[in-house]
Every structure is written in structure tokens, then in C-alpha cells.
UniProtKB/TrEMBL annotation, chains A, B, C, D:
The record marks 112 as: Increases basicity of active site Tyr. Gene3D superfamilies: Lactate dehydrogenase/glycoside hydrolase, family 4, C-terminal, NAD(P)-binding Rossmann-like Domain. PANTHER family: 6-PHOSPHO-BETA-GLUCOSIDASE (PTHR32092:SF5), 6-PHOSPHO-BETA-GLUCOSIDASE-RELATED (PTHR32092). This is 6-phospho-beta-glucosidase. Residues 256-283 form a coiled coil. Residues 197-410 form the Glycosyl hydrolase family 4 C-terminal domain. It comes from the Bacteria. It comes from Niallia alba. Keywords: Carbohydrate metabolism, Cobalt, Coiled coil, Glycosidase, Hydrolase, Iron, Manganese, Metal-binding, NAD, Nickel. InterPro entries: GlycHydrolase_4_CS, Glyco_hydro_4, Glyco_hydro_4_C, Lactate_DH/Glyco_Ohase_4_C, NAD(P)-bd_dom_sf.
Length: 442, 442, 442, 442
């Protein structure tokens, strides 16, 4: 790597790309990126060009020798890459809108990474990611795959269990957002706060909170229950029951509301969908506006409007991870990686989201023993769901998909599960060829 | 034990007692019961006398030298007992009616052993059973406690974790009912059918079905989906989705409907409660009629009307277990016992319901490796619930009880959990002294 | 199997075969063997004919319709077999003699199934058994392989880990000999004694002893220390330290002497080798005499002299296992099978020797939780040894073989391990082709 | 802790104390020690005064406001301590000499922390350390106990399992010595080398070696086999078999020689004991000389002669650990701490020696999954030994002690174990009161 680093971003035409570019620019001293390849599919060519040109202007303004390449040829881009990041969305926001709308018709939460929506995003995404890792094996076997594509937990699980590729780290901005939120609530600098994260992607808990190294968890939980909730952009900020949080003894993430406040979240979604549209529909409009901004040839920085899009700390989390890996920093970051015994009641070979030491040879989880008794069951249920869903994505087996759908805790019954499954399979047919091969269908 | 066996039945005034007496009579040759002590509390004295006198008539008719003792003095009865069976109900059917009615007000399933009802039955029962095992330690340390009192899983868990008493077996008629149902469907004698049972009480799966030793599971599941469901008396027989059962690859028990068909079961309960009353209310009427029958001094057999009460195979399961223990038969029976590694993803020290070798020194589970991936999560969630609930029952801690309630998969949110908890604590106040000690309350 | 059972015995020319034939004859009513195929290799043809003709005379005398086939064509024999038993010895007793003699030169125990001898018997045997299971997959996929070939633990481990064949049971007469010894010492019928066996082949412990179902372990251990040891024919009966046995709290098997009495056993071996020859050398003479007897055309029963050979209860253990499998008896027998969680500190996928329920679909271990703390380490060390040895046998890798040799607890150092390894590799060259392929050697 | 740190060193009269004092002086900027209490027993008063006065001169020379207190009153010293270090030796070097001499009479390795010597050092030490933690609970419940007293693994195990005190870290200079040796061999600065350490105290492996973050393990092992061994002062540097090291695939520690080179090490010990005396006898002379030096009132630095004593990097390891804890550095150091799932085949509650994140709230192990198959058995055997030994130390049970002795892999038989046990119990009678209480003796 002496000659600088080659980074490939699959789904490079995403509106998030400027975040990433800004991150590389800021960290150039310790992370000297020489080539940044933005890859997309033909349908995304226009957006790739718009955002790619913005990236070039940003680099130029920074005066750095980073080459930005735009291409539709994934294999050309991947050759000898050092880090490959994935941030693509199969079926674009139109598919997400279906993931959100269809379940709501059945009074079931429609959400990008949870419930039926999460299942279908997985079914569409996993075959593509498995194709990509086959390319990696061939073209850049020493690269690390940094996956941001949701559902990141299920995708990481699928790669770990259904491919030979082990050099994958799944990344999410939920843990860092929790940490920042804690610092804000405590009115201290974020660097003074540490959190033991453990669980699964979008089902991660802050088990302990430390201020200057001292465990302040009970005090913090007390404080937390006295403030209005402040969640991520895409999750309704319905307040927790204070007594429940104290009883839980750990900090849930925003997505836990879909499970511990299922009724209220569903109600909220139904109202929002009626009034302003689902999140995908809102984001579609936001994206349109962002790309209009990006087209401006005078724009050569990340525009502040991007923050509304929802990926807070995205750049920080991603670049900081790549920087620590490249420089073997051995600092602690929360990532999705193979469990390897760090959480007792999750299978060793499964993906978990956990505070880990970040080294040049990948993340090494810090053992936590086990999750609190009260939360183990739900976490294990979501892990079971992820595993069955990943198997359905790989095999295209209808029964396996129905099993995944039915055991998801957001579904009210096997009957409703089947109804939603059938309607969604039909709606996403174009992106689910594995389910429509004649011989597998029955 | 040379001189015959002493059996003590706590809650001896139960309408089920004639089942048990019939069982002992039928098995007298191999299981020579010398003393049967029926114990009850003052409030149950009248029923105890009615059913106890029937028991005496049954024994007399059989011409056997079994002494039947009726007493309100538990400690007198327990002295040197060989087997102690527990079948009491704290708060009687009136309490059960509350367990069923109150949750329904919040659109939550009201059921004796699941959801809020199961939690509160546990909260009322566990302190009493822990009192009983203290007596056992002192008065009959070599006895075995055979517990039928529901929620049998949570009760067994509580004794294993919160007492020093390890000689407990929890018993339930669900597995034997499944086995009988399979034999009926296959139109073969029950003795030709074997089932590998594993899971938790009221959350047990038939993992494999054997006919004459041959594993016929997939064929049986196919056949099962083609027949109308036939469940236990207290569970609505709503049909499973055939595709779901095939995907599951194992036989669920009737109580699984509360989880995999939550919406339909709730709907059904709401309708039944409005039309004919909850199950407790129906049973209260049934019991009244039964005790009228029992009073008849000419009755000296178990009356056939008892079958409507719902405890099919109860006598068979109980007496067969005691017989195998007494005679060290080393045959295979499904019981609730300490896991000890038999099911990988359940803690070793927890109670599980599993096919076990029955010996004079207690049951020894046959290892099953692990549950199918798809069902692990739900089973673990119920086990987490049972453990937190047992802790709440022992400590009387409000927050722990709220935690148990909220993590139960039948609850829609932390807010509703708190509402139901508060109303039920008040409603059952009389039987929950541990929650109303001044110093613990907050 | 309606038309009778087809059994194939590989290594059919063994002097033990009459044991097996006698067992089948005695059990004909419940285990109607129709065809018994005795298979051997060209070098064993003469012995095959001698013992095969005796088998035919025994069957004829019994008046049973069992066809006895003698063949050198393994694949012909295997077609549609129901049970395949393996009792072959690669390199015959001459190889065993080397396994015993060479280590003694280095002051290391020379023994057929332990230490360097056990390792080399495994290295010679495992490739052959893996060839056999390939034939089974093709020619009789529903058959069960009942393996008696030593080292039975390592062989079972190798099949479980290095082939796709799971229908294997490893069988040994050590546990049944222990049980018989206990009954003899207690002066009761063997059927009144039960023992919880757990551990590995030739490293199995009797964890608990029951008389009529009552756990009498401490009393029995006390009694055991007061009597002269009585071991199997091939193990020197050096008495245990009484205090050690009481401290151990479990019954060791005879082979444990090689570990817990290493010094005395080595001394004894050195003396015996000098005076009367090693066990193989003694047995070679015994075998010669036996085959002389077998040649007698008037002999039509198992000759009593066979008992000196050392396979006490061999017929009982083998035929009783096959009978229970064929008839789905679900009784308890100690066998070598996949652990599957039954012993906590042994890997789930490894072979263990353990009391199991015997069914038509194979053995199912009864969970024991874990071995006593004191013995776990040694058992785990032998399991590590077996696994590394199996890998060496499969790969023919010199370093792996050295690793296996060095970590064996009977070896005094890496240096001596290497010396013995080098000498034994050379001595057994003919039967270890996998180590002498040019490309693998270094 | 704002006002500076209070450190208590039990066994403060040790010749090692100047190492520790030097470490605190060097790190004063980040680790502002305000009080250093050196505690010893009456028999050690003279040495305490000599070394304590040297400590005072060293502090004075450094011009730092550290108060050095010398006392025989442990409880006075412990009040409100922040860190308590233990480096005492029950029975002094005279006892160690017996630990080394007696086993040699039976042709068994005599060593301070392995075999019979390790067992007896544990039997003498554990009751004292359990007394100390009772004082800690009362007098300084927020302190951390940093234990250097050998056998450090067994001592940490005993505290974790037989007391309520969890704030203990066991420390050893073996891992840091390995790391320094690697850097020296690679001719690079130590800071560029990382090693994944895992195992038990004095049974730790370097599983992977990294240079600048890159895993270079196989290359390093190759290189390592080409150089003369360089071990710690107290272990004979007998070279490993190169092929064994390559096959092992991990770096053993010096003490592994007692197991993998048992024959040669015993031979070497026998020769050295005859020629120059055992290590204790050599050290006794060294200590005498050191204390002569320490008496010199002009000496105000750590004398260079101390290095011969054998505690290389002792100061570094100890002060660096305390510094990281005090400052919550979250860097990686190898320590003895509770396993908590970090090494799969060691019980969760046991002490392991493992690379851990060092925080203000103690060490958190980095999960390693499991040890290589080949070494698991030996490590588990030593852990079994440690656990049985700790139990013997606490109970004073003769049988338990015999069990510990017999299962130790350095013992050749139960008979020899008993002989050595009996002789050593008698020899150390004065320091083993728990074995000589009348009622426990038998």
C-alpha cells in the first residue's frame, strides 16, 4: 500500500457520496487515498455523473492528488482495490416505497430494515452482494469489504455464512449516533464518553456508559428518562416509558421502538403515510433536491442540506474505520463482524454489532460475556430471522421466505405473513429472479 | 419404600383429583400406593371433603389397601412423603378470570399461562411453591416433587434457580396429547409412535415423528396440514397455514397459536369473551357441575364428564411418570427438568420440556443438539420472560415485573405493558403481598 | 428389511468372527439375519476360509436359514447391506507388534490404542475406513456402519469429520466389561446394575453406579478400592491408589492406567516384553492355536479357547446393539457417537463414548452436563490428539503427525516424539502411502 | 482520586520493590502516586526496612512528593487504597527450595509454579490471599488488586471462585518478555510488534505475531526455529524441535518446556540441583547480595544487579497496567482476568491470561474464539489442575489435594503423587494449617 490507497465505492452514485469524499479529504494525512473509484449500474449513470463530478470538484478544491474515477464496469474498478465500500440500493427508492407501503395495508409496520420491508430488502440485496464477493475473491483478494448497504446485519450474516469471503465489516451510524446523543445529554465532549455496544445491527444495545472511564450507566438511564427522545431522522421519537428503561438497565437503539413500542410506531406510520407519505416517499423528494444542488458546477463542498437525508456521522464512522484499519490503530469502534464467542448466546459464526478493536487484519470483538437476560430472546429471534432470511435469499425457496416472514416479531400471524409475502414477491418480481426460476417456485 | 408409597397431593381438593386416584388404582400392581394425602387450604375445605370422599369410595370399590387422608395441615401430610404432587391454584378460578379479562381490555391476549395472565399466575404461585420446597427440605428430603401447577415452566425454573431443591419434575399433558393426536391421525396405536419433544412448557415442539422407529416427519407434516386442527379443550382450533407448517419442519404445540397466530387468537378471544365468557368463566360453571356430581354418594368411579374439563391424559402422564421413577424403568417421557446442555441455546441451569429417560434418581434429558434455527429465538424469548418473571415473583420488584411484561411477545408496547401491569397488580393485590411491602414498592 | 437382514463383516477372517456368529444365532428370533457376508483382503483369504467354514458349520448346526457368504470383493458384498461391521487390522498383528516394540526402545509405552502405537494404528486404518464409507454411500446408503476397528474413537472421529457419512456407531467392549465387573463385585445380576458412561473410547469413565436405580457410587468406590483389580486381558492389573479413586469420584477404565499409572505401566511393559513378548507377540501365538482349532471340521460351535483372546462380551455388545437398532428398542447402551452437546466440554461434532438411547435411526446420547472438573483436561487432551491424528491420517502431513505425537500425554518430549515418529513412519511405510507421496513429504 | 493515588504493596520487603518504585517515579506525570505503603510481616521487618529506606532515597532523589510508608499493619495500610499489589512469598525462599528439592527425589520436576511445587505454593498462598481480599472488601472496596504472587493463575482463579472480590488482575512478565524477544529477533522496535496472547498463566501462547499490523506468524516461527532459544532467567534454554514449532503454529512460552520437553527439563534440573543447587538456592544467594547493596545509604537508584534476579520488564508491566487503569487508556495488555467467553473451551468464570483492553473498570478480554485444537487439551488440563488445587487450598481436604497432584501432567502416577504429597505436606506443615485441623485430616 506504499503508493497510496485504492478505494472502490459500489453504488457510487448515491447522494451520500459527498459525505465519504469529505471524510477522505479531511483524513488525507493519515489515510492517503490515491484512487477513488465510484461504480454504479447503467440505470444510475446520470446520478453517478452528477455526484462524481461534485466529488472531483471537492478534491480539486482541497488540492489533493486523489484520482476520482467514474465507471459502470465494476470488475475494472475492483482490480487491486484496498478497500471496497458498498452503498447500493437494489430497485432504488421505488422499491423501498413498496417495502413501506405494502405491509401497512395489512396493519404491519413497513420499514426499510425491519419486518417485511427488511426481509425484502435482504432478498433483493444478498444475491448482488454475493456476486460482488465473488469478484473480490478474483480481483482483489486482499481488499476489505466495508458494507453500508442495509439490512447490514443480514447482509454481513449472508456473506459470512454463504460465501468464502471473510474480509467484511458491516458499518452503521446507529452506535455512533447513540454515543453522540449521550455526550450531548451529558453536555461533555464525545471523546470523554465510552459505550459498550453489543447486539445486532439495528438491534444494538449500549450495555454500559462510561464518563472518563467511570461506569455511570444507572445515573445516565435516570437522566435519559427525563429528557425528550431524540432519534435518528427516520425513526419517530416516541418517548420510552421511564420505568421500562430503568428496568432494562441498558440503552436501546432507536430501532428498538419497532419492537418495544410496536403499537405506537404502527399507529404513527399509518398517520404519517396518510399525511406526508412514507419515509421513502419523503426521501425521494429530498434526493431530487439534493441532486439539483449537486449539479451546480460552483458547488465544491458537501452541501449542508445533505444532513437532512439522515446519515449523520456516516462519514465519520466510515472513514474512521478505514483509517484505523489502514494504520492498525487498535482503537475501539462498534462494527458488524463475526461473533467468535464475544456474545455467549449468539452463534460463534454469526454477525454481531459489537465494540471491537480495529486492526489492519480486521476487527476483533471485545468479549461481553452475554447480553442481559431480558433482551437475549429478542436479539436471538432477530438473529434467527436474519439467518432464515439469508437462506431464503440464497435459495429462492418460497417456504423458507414464508418461515422468515412468519417468525419476524412484527408479524401478527402466519396467515398475514403469507398474504404480505405473496403480494411483495409479486411487487418486487423484477429484482427477485431467484424466486421465479421455474424449478424452484413450488 | 418397601412398605408401600406415600403420596401427598397439594391442592387435593381440585376437580382433577379423581383422574389421579383412578391412575393410582389402575397401576397398583407396579406402584403400590399405601397412603394418599390430599392437602388443601381452609378456603378449599369443602371441595376437599367432596372430592376426598369420592376418592375414598373409588379406592374402596377397587378393593385396594390405599389409605386416603384429607387434611389442611400441609406439614403433617409431608412427613416422609415419597412423592409430592402440586396442583393448586392461588386465588382459584376467580383469579384466572381476572388474568383473562383484564388484558382483553387492552386488546392483549388474556390466557392462563401466556402473556400477562401467565405472568400473574407465576407471580402468585412462585412464592407458595418456594414455601413448599422449604417444607420438603425439612420434612421429606428424599421425596420428588411432581409439579402440575401452571405456569409449570416458570414454576420449575423458579425452583431450580431460587431454591436449593433439585428434586422437581414439571409435568404437562401437552406432549402426550400431541403424541396421541399423531397416532390418531396416522390411525395407528400410540405405542408405535415416538416423538422427540424439545422446548419449554407450553412452547414445546415435536421435532421428529417416528412410526415403528422410522423418521416420518416430512410425510407427517404434509398429512397434518390436510386435516382440521384438533387442539386441547382450552385453545381455539384455528388452522395453521399449511405452507408455514411445512416450512417450520416441526410440530408446534397448540399454545404456539398465541404467537404464530396472535391476531386471530386475540380476535377469537374477544368474541368468545363477549359471547360465552372467558375460559375461566366457562370452567367455573363446569366445575360447579362436577362437584355436584362428586357429591353423589353412589358415585365411586371417575365420572366421564370430567373429560370436558380439559385435562386429557393427565392421569396417564402423572401416574406413568411416578411409576417409572419408583420402578427405575428408564423409559422415555417428556418432562420439565433441568436442561444440563441437552438443548444448546438454552442455559444449562434452566428448565426445559424435553424427552428424558426416567430413572429413580430423576429424569435425564436426551440431547437434541439444538432447536431448529427458526424457532430458537421465540423459545429463548419465552425463557428470558420466564426468568425475569420468576425473579419478579421472588423479589416483588415492580421494575422487574414491568420488564417481564414488556418483553413478553404478546405485549404491543412498554406503555400498554405498564397499564396492564398496574391494573393487574391492583386486582390481584391480595395474592401478591411481595409487591405491597412498603419498602419494596417504589 | 421385511425379508430378513443383510449383514456384511469387513475383516471377516478375524478370529473373533465366531463370537459374532454365535451372537446372531442366539438372537435369531428378534434379529432374523438372512445373509452374512464375510469380506477380507487377498492376504487374509486363507483365514477367511477357515473361519468362514466354521461359521457355516455353526449356522448349520443351529438349523437357521442364514446364508454365509465368503468373498474378497467388498463392493459385491456391500450392495444393499443393512448393517456393516468392520473389524479389520491393517498390517495384521505384525504391524501391531511394531507399534508395541518401537516406542519401548525410547522408554515410551507401546500400546495398540494409546500413545505412538495408537497414533500409527490410526494412520494406517483411517484411509481404509474412509474408502469404505465411500463405498457405503454408493452401494448401501441406508446401512449402518458398526465399527469395532481400533482405535475406535479416532476412527469414528475421522468418519464424522472427514466424510459425509453420519450413519456410524463405534463399539467397544470396555464399558460392558466395567458393568459386568461391577455386578461381579456387588455379587448381583448385571441387569440390576446401571452405569452412566461418558468420555472417549478407551478413556471412558463410569460417572455413576446405580443398583436397582439407586445411586451407590461413593459406596461402590469404597468397595472397589478394597479388591484386587481385575482388568481386561490386555491390560496389566496394577492396583489403583485407594485414596486416588475416592478423590476421583468416578470409575476409571482399565486404559486409564496408561495415564494415571504411566510409570508403573511402562515398567511392566518393559519387563513383559523382555520376558514373554509384547501383547501382539502373545496374541500371534494364541491366534495360531485358534485357527488350528477352527480348521477342525467337527467343530461347529464357538470354541471356549476364544475367550483368552480378549474380546469378552464382544458378541453381546455388538449383537445387542444391532438388535436394538433393528427393533428400535430405545434401550440404553454405551456407544461411540457424535457428541451433539451431551458432554459440555467436548466439541459438539466430535465422537464421544457415552450411554445412549439406541433407536432405529441411531444412538441418541443422554446428556451428562459435563465431566468432573478433574478429568476434563485429560479427556480433552486425548480428543485433541485424536483430532490432530485424524487430520494427519487424512492429509499425510508429516508436521501434523509430529504434532499429534508430541501432544500425546505418553510422550516425554518433542525430541523423543520426533525420533519415534521417524522410526515408525519408516517401519510402517508399506501401509502409509499418504506420507510417502513425493509432494507431501516435506 | 483527584488528590493523588494511594498504593499498597503487600510483601513490600521483597527485593523487587525498587523495580516498582522506579516505575512509579518514571510515570509520575501521568500516574501521580501520593502514598506508597510497603507492608510486610514481622519476619520480614528487617528486609522491609532495608528496601523501604532505599525506596525513600529513590523518591527523594527524584524530587517527587511521594510519601513512602513502611508498616507491619496491613489493615492500617489498606484503608482507602486505590491499588493494592501483592508480591509476598509464604515461607520465603526456604519453602521454595523444598518445592524444588522434594519432587526431584522422585524423579519429578521441582518448579515454583508447575507440578508439585506449583501446587504447594498455591496451597500456602491461597488462604492468605483470601484473607487479604476480606480486608479489601472492608477497607478499600473500590481498590483494584494487582496480584504478582505466584502461582498467579491459580491465585486469580481462587479469588474469582472462592471469594466475592472481582476487582483482581493477575500480572506476569512472561507475555511482555515474549514480545520483547520477538522484537529483538526481528530487530525492530517493540512498539511495532503486536502479539495475540491467550492461555493461562505460565501456559500462555502467542497465537499470532503482527509487525506493523501485518500477521507474520508463519514467517516468524520459521525464523524462531533458526535461532538459539533465549528464555527467562529461571528456565533452561533447551531448544525446541524446529518441526514441532512449525507444526504447533503458535509461540509457546518458556514454561511450556516443562510439558513439551519434560524429559530433558527433568534431566537438566537433576544436573543443576547437583552442581549449583536449585533455582531457589541460587536466588537465596543473589538476594543476600542484593540486600547488602540495598543497605548502602548512598544508593538512591535501582541497582543494575537486580536484573539478574529474573523479573525483567516487571516494573514496566506493573506500572503500565496501573497507569492504563488509572487513566482509562483502553490500550491492549496481556493480563490474568476472568475469561467471560473470550476463550471458548475454558469455563467462562475461570481466570485466563489474555490480551485485554485495560480500562478504569478493569480489563476486558479481546475474544479469540478458541485455542488451536492441538493445545486445548493441555491448557484445559492445567485449568482443571488449578481448579482442583484451589479447592484443596480452601478446604484443606487431603483427597482433593491428592487429586490435584495426580492429574498434574508432570506426575508419572497416582502412587508417586501420593508419596510426594505426603512428604511435602509434612515438610510445609507450618504453612498449611488448613490440612492439619483435626476434624478435616482424614
Amino acid at each position: 500500500m506504499e503508493k497510496g490507497i485504492k478505494i472502490v465505492t459500489i453504488g457510487g452514485g448515491s447522494s451520500y457520496t459527498p459525505e465519504l469524499v469529505e471524510g477522505f479529504i479531511k483524513r488525507y494525512d493519515s489515510l492517503p487515498v490515491r484512487e477513488l473509484w465510484l461504480v454504479d449500474i447503467p440505470e444510475g449513470e446520470e446520478k453517478l455523473n452528477i455526484v462524481g463530478n461534485l466529488a472531483k470538484r471537492m478534491v480539486k478544491k482541497a488540492g489533493l492528488p486523489i484520482e476520482v474515477h467514474l465507471t459502470l464496469d465494476r470488475r475494472e474498478a475492483l482490480k487491486d482495490a484496498d478497500f471496497v465500500t458498498t452503498q447500493f440500493r437494489v430497485g432504488l427508492l421505488a422499491a423501498r416505497a413498496k417495502d413501506e407501503r405494502i405491509p401497512l395495508k395489512y396493519n404491519v409496520i413497513g420499514q426499510e430494515t425491519n419486518g417485511p420491508g427488511g426481509l425484502f430488502k435482504g432478498l433483493r440485496t444478498i444475491p448482488i452482494i454475493l456476486d460482488i464477493v465473488k469478484d473480490l475473491e478474483e480481483l482483489c483478494p486482499n481488499a476489505w469489504l466495508i458494507n453500508f448497504t442495509n439490512p447490514a446485519g443480514m447482509v454481513t450474516e449472508a456473506v459470512l455464512r454463504h460465501s468464502n469471503w471473510k474480509r467484511i465489516v458491516g458499518l452503521c451510524n446507529v452506535p455512533i449516533s447513540i454515543q453522540m446523543g449521550i455526550a450531548k445529554l451529558l453536555e461533555v465532549e464525545a471523546s470523554r464518553v465510552h459505550v459498550d455496544f453489543a447486539g445486532l445491527n439495528h438491534m444494538v444495545f449500549g450495555l454500559n456508559v462510561y464518563l472518563d472511564g467511570k461506569n455511570i450507566t444507572p445515573d445516565f438511564l435516570e437522566k435519559m428518562t427525563k429528557h425528550k427522545s431524540d432519534t435518528m431522522k427516520n425513526i419517530a421519537a416516541i418517548d420510552w416509558e421511564p420505568d421500562f428503561i430503568k428496568a432494562l438497565g441498558a440503552i436501546p437503539c432507536g430501532y428498538h421502538r419497532y419492537y418495544y413500542k410496536q403499537a405506537e410506531m404502527l399507529q404513527n406510520e399509518l398517520e404519517e403515510a396518510a399525511e406526508q407519505g412514507t419515509r421513502a416517499e419523503v426521501v425521494q423528494q429530498l434526493e431530487k433536491e439534493l441532486f439539483e444542488l449537486y449539479k451546480d458546477e460552483h458547488l465544491d463542498i458537501k452541501p449542508p442540506q445533505l444532513e437532512k437525508r439522515g446519515g449523520a456521522y456516516y462519514s465519520d464512522a466510515a472513514c474512521s474505520l478505514i483509517d484505523s484499519m489502514y494504520n492498525d490503530r487498535r482503537d475501539i469502534q462498534p462494527v458488524n463482524t463475526i461473533n467468535n464467542g464475544a456474545i455467549a448466546s449468539i452463534p460463534d459464526e454469526s454477525a454481531v454489532e459489537i465494540s471491537s478493536i480495529i486492526t489492519k487484519e480486521g476487527p476483533k470483538p471485545i468479549t461481553i460475556g452475554d447480553l442481559p437476560v431480558a433482551v437475549r430472546g429478542l436479539v436471538q429471534q432477530i438473529k434467527s430471522f436474519e439467518r432464515v432470511a439469508a437462506e431464503a435469499a440464497v435459495t429462492g425457496n418460497y417456504h423458507t421466505a414464508l418461515l422468515a416472514m412468519t417468525i419476524n416479531p412484527l408479524l401478527p400471524s402466519d396467515k398475514v405473513a403469507k398474504q404480505i409475502l405473496d403480494e411483495m414477491l409479486e411487487a418486487h418480481k423484477e429484482h427477485l429472479p431467484q424466486f421465479f426460476k421455474e424449478e424452484v417456485l413450488s
